[in-house]
Request: fold
Amino acid sequence: MTRVSRRGLTRRTFIGASLATGIGLGIGIPLFRDLGGSSSTGNQLRSELPLPQLFTQPFRVPPVLEPSRTDADADYYDITQTAATASILPGVKTTIWGYNGIFPGPTINSRRARTSVVTHTNNLPVPTVVHLHGGRTPHDSDGYPIDYVFPTDRSYLNEYLHLSHGVGMGDSATGDTSEGRRSYHYPLDQRAAMLWYHDHRMDFTGPSVWRGLAGMHFVRDEEEDALRLPSGARELPIMITDRSFNSDGSLSYPSIDGSLVGKAGVTSAFVPGVLGDVMLVNGTPWPRARVDGAVYRLRVLNACNARRLDVRFDPQPEGAITQIGTDGGLLAAPLSHEHFELAPAQRADLLVDFSSFRPGTSVTLLNDFGDGNMSQVMRFVVGDAVGDAFKTPDVLSTIDTLNPARAAVTRTFRFESGDVEHMKGWLIDGKPFSPDDITAAPKLGTVEVWRLVADFHHPIHLHLNPFQVLSRGIGGPGAFDAGWKDTIDLRPAEEAAIAVRFDGYAGKYVFHCHNLEHEDMAMMANFSTHH
Ligand code: C2O
Ligand code: CU
Reply:
């Protein structure tokens, strides 16, 4: 495997990208003189509390949500969105917004092509929207950014009366939304993969996710079962988020209006993105996990608002990191990496062999894109070898390669900073998000090539359908681009091309930057699929 420069772009790709796109590095730079390090576009917010010792808190896995009922057609789940008190830093109480009052929310496990119906009740003081990230979902259950679930408590009504119910949604904003409740229908007719669900309200996704509205949702299938991958206690979900805390223990976030109903956006220093100074894994700061001397399957999700991660193990296990899957499920064949880069919203399905260490060895998961404490993620303490006979299969799945020569349309989108209502913000092709503008109208059943051009780091995500990365600059796909992706990590002054096969459902969907501050400050647009 070719090793990609730790700091992102190699000089050669960088120059290639600049020449190919004609972007000068000068554009926009004066706005963002102190970008917290070169590896993420964002600024770090300092906590006002003493931070815990690293690797002292036990690693936790969020509870799995059992269906409330199940019938021939579907499994039915109930989730209540509510404020709750959590103990994230030891001895400190923190108010969070959580799915069922916990952060991360409960994990849902679904089978491919078996419908899951998730009914959300909104007991929060603001409207919410739930999006299943990576789900191939009909438009009316996709969590369109203004398809609100209003609070159950009607006394908040005056504050959000200005939000017209389901603007631009036609008939789709129906159902029992007005009761503070909504059922999302997920057919999940898609490959096994790690999905995640999170808030997606227009203009307020960043602060809502930061407060805790995020959880994991796995899709399983027979193809994956047949591989007999490590499972049960040997399969660990690893949701990584960075957060900062105020002196009173509350989560710190630089909203212009902390009520999250008035003016959207963050204070000017944080327009590039909000980076925390506490690394959480499944909601625990720098945890420590005990593992057997065996092969583990780690399902890693970068759920940070803006922080990019570059993970590796120290000491390095035998065979380093074996990647078996990505955002959209299994790769065709395993890939070996010494380290792995993840932009916000990206997932990696990794195998790690802890039997290569002597019992008692401490193995640290590092983040080479972070400094100081933020260069550390968690620690594994290896127990006895258990005589695990697991061998990584040579063939994992079949991926049909999309042929760009057959593309029905090629489109180009520019992701750049600019003014949004006289403030600094983020634009696609010079325009801020509007629910009424349709930027692309792909025909279902066709393949399109999208050329994506960035000024700074922009992790670009498409709803509905996954894609394949065709190129970066004048080169091919990067080391972490294999398989079906739903989010591509665009680096400064980079241009990439992706191939997308649009299929599944007709309707209006969004694509956007998954740096959540960029998304809230308007770097989002609509595509509308049709037959
Ligand atoms: Cu994970 Cu539209 O987002
Ligand atoms: Cu962005």
